[in-house]
């Protein structure tokens, strides 16, 4: 039964309509809460839709924003600042995704709701909202992360009353949301199960898509194949989920789909983005390269009016989400209220450059006047603009042996560094690491992290790169400094063979100031604790290698191991 109440927040009276029911085309209804000002009039509406529970989002009325490591930080509080949205004279609509919270229906699989594409539910919800007396027919959407992905999927269905969207902090390449370079990422477990600082999905009726679609025999074969991977078999939680999937159905399905394909692509927002013709504002913070990569790929695929902001490090700061609301209201005041805010008079792309903390603007991405140049791995852990002139017999490879974490807590790391820069050196774009590596097993992880190291030894992360060695194949999109891996099959490594691995370095923007050095680290596991990981949400780690593996990194005249990086060639327009 729906209810009606009022709430006072900072002197503002908020009218709350609880538990309304929005009908979907297949007959099920979604549970909806509505927040607007005291005056009973139509307003533009901003819609938020996720499986995290509309009641959780109401915490933004009583919980001041928390920064990590506050124990009250909750990564699922992402629907926006209700009081601020109401104060700006918008109606805030927060709904539960089907199969979650108080909504009807079944959620099947990871990105497929009850067999219905998620975008169809957004379409039906938007059109229902537009017909209500508290909406003036102009609808946008709000919320970060999962909420932002829902915005893209909904806009691709082209509901007539959805006039613009504002996507901040989203995940758009669904395979890359789960596997980085083919390496499993644990964060989806936290967001779905509710672990380590995330409330997780408000579970209603959720089922495994793999269990729905595969026969018991096929399912048993898939599980057996995954447990044959030492990385998976030697991680107790994963072995447990594969054996006992009940109540972890979505995480179970991710584990059974370690390759890219139909499971991820049919609902991939980037795949659907070319169908969107309404204005789209895309924002993302530096620090989690896969989300930056996906945001840029989304921006490039969009066909209508669009903007892209690449914002300062670090990501995922405060919850409840309240940041960048100033940008959002400039956008929606323009497109939903018809107010000339000047937002479309500005360059389409804005890039915050770490190091100098300047803003570079452009009409496109990638930026003009970027030149890809190599930095070669050299003996004595050096990076140089000049390649190694000596052969393998004189420039012997670097190496490390990594024992699995079943027997050690030590993560071995190789590093190479430039000499201190004499002048400010700016890089903006993607990058690549060409590494000639010999391993003595069939697979390993190659994890790269680039740092800006100051004269006093302090440092900030610049970018990362991940590649499971068996996923080393490249596809036709690959260009110099911008490699792409299809991740559609795994090709075991021949032990003892020197292979060239081209690791994608996620997009970044950094200016190395005089006296600073660029440092690159290579490992097959991530350090268990460090300054960067402490800035990320809990459990934002990657599945370690379960194999005992020796790695030899060749960097001689016949094996030009190198970084290929996007050096800017002129001072671009700055604010």
UniProtKB/TrEMBL annotation:
Keywords: Hydrolase. GO terms for molecular function: dipeptidyl-peptidase activity. The keyword Lipid metabolism does not apply. It holds the Pfam family Peptidase_S15. The keyword Phosphoprotein does not apply. Residues 329-564 form the Xaa-Pro dipeptidyl-peptidase C-terminal domain. PANTHER family: COCE_NOND FAMILY, PUTATIVE (AFU_ORTHOLOGUE AFUA_7G00600)-RELATED, PEPTIDASE S9 PROLYL OLIGOPEPTIDASE. This is Xaa-Pro dipeptidyl-peptidase C-terminal domain-containing protein. It comes from Nocardiopsis algeriensis.
């Amino acid at each position: 039964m729906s209810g009606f109440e009022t709430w006072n927040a900072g002197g503002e009276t908020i009218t709350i309509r609880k538990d309304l029911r929005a009908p979907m085309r297949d007959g099920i209804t979604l549970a909806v809460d509505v927040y607007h000002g005291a005056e009973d009039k139509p307003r533009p509406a901003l819609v938020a839709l996720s499986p995290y529970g509309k009641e959780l989002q109401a915490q933004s009325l009583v919980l001041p924003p928390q920064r990590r490591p506050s124990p009250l930080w909750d990564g699922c509080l992402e629907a926006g600042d209700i009081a601020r949205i109401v104060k700006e004279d918008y109606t805030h609509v927060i709904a539960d995704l089907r199969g979650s919270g108080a909504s009807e229906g079944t959620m099947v699989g990871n990105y497929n709701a009850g067999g219905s594409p998620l975008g169809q539910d957004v379409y039906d919800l938007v059109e229902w909202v537009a017909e209500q007396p508290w909406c003036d027919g102009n609808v946008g959407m709000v919320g970060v992360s999962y909420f932002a992905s829902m915005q893209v999927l909904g806009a691709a269905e082209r509901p007539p009353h959805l006039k613009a969207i504002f996507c901040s902090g989203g995940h758009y390449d669904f395979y890359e949301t789960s596997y980085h370079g083919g390496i499993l990422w644990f964060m989806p477990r936290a967001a779905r199960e509710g672990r380590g600082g995330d409330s997780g999905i408000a579970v209603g009726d959720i089922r495994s898509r793999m269990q729905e679609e595969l026969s018991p025999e096929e399912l048993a074969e898939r599980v057996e194949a995954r447990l044959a991977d030492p990385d998976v078999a030697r991680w107790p939680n994963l072995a447990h989920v594969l054996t006992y999937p009940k109540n972890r159905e979505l995480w179970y399905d991710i584990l059974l789909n370690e390759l890219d394909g139909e499971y991820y692509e049919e609902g991939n927002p980037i795949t659907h983005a070319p169908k969107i013709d309404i204005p789209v504002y895309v924002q993302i913070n530096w620090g989690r390269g896969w989300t930056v990569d996906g945001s840029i790929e989304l921006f490039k695929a969009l066909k209508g009016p669009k903007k892209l902001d690449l914002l300062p490090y670090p990501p995922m700061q405060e919850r409840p989400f309240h940041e960048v609301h100033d940008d959002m209201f400039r956008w929606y005041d323009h497109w939903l209220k018809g107010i000339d805010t000047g937002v479309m008079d500005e360059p389409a792309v804005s890039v915050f450059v770490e190091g100098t903390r300047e803003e570079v603007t452009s009409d496109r991405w990638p930026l003009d006047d970027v030149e890809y140049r190599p930095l070669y791995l050299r003996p004595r852990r050096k990076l140089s603009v000049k390649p190694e002139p000596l052969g393998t017999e004189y420039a012997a490879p670097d190496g490390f042996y990594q024992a699995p974490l079943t027997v050690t807590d030590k993560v071995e790391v190789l590093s190479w560094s430039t000499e201190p820069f004499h002048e400010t050196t700016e890089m903006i774009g993607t990058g690549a690491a060409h590494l000639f590596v010999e391993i003595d097993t069939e697979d390993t992880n190659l994890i790269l992290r680039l740092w800006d190291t100051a004269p006093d030894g302090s440092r900030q992360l610049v970018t990362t790169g991940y590649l499971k060695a068996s996923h080393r194949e490249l596809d036709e999109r690959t260009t110099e400094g911008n490699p792409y891996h299809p991740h559609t099959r795994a090709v075991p490594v021949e032990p003892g063979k020197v292979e060239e691995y081209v690791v994608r370095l996620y997009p970044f923007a950094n200016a190395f100031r005089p006296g600073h050095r660029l440092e690159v680290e290579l490992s097959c596991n991530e350090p268990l604790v460090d300054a960067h990981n402490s800035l990320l949400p809990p459990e934002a780690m990657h599945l370690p290698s379960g194999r005992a593996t020796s790695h030899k990194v060749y960097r001689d005249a016949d094996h030009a191991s190198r970084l290929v990086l996007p050096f800017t060639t002129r001072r671009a327009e700055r604010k």
